[in-house]
Amino acid sequence: MTVGQIMVVCGICLVLVAVLLAVVGSVLLHKKKKMVLLEIEHEYR
Fold this sequence. Notes:
Elements: H1 3-44
Transmembrane segments: 6-29
Keywords: Membrane, Transmembrane, Transmembrane helix
């Protein structure tokens, strides 16, 4: 493999990792928001 190919592979890996982190982060945020909203609803009932 040439240096250029290695750099391209590393770049693709970094992009994949970034996308995975973004997806996981948004899912966790969604769950947290739902939990908080549920707690607020319970308190006001």
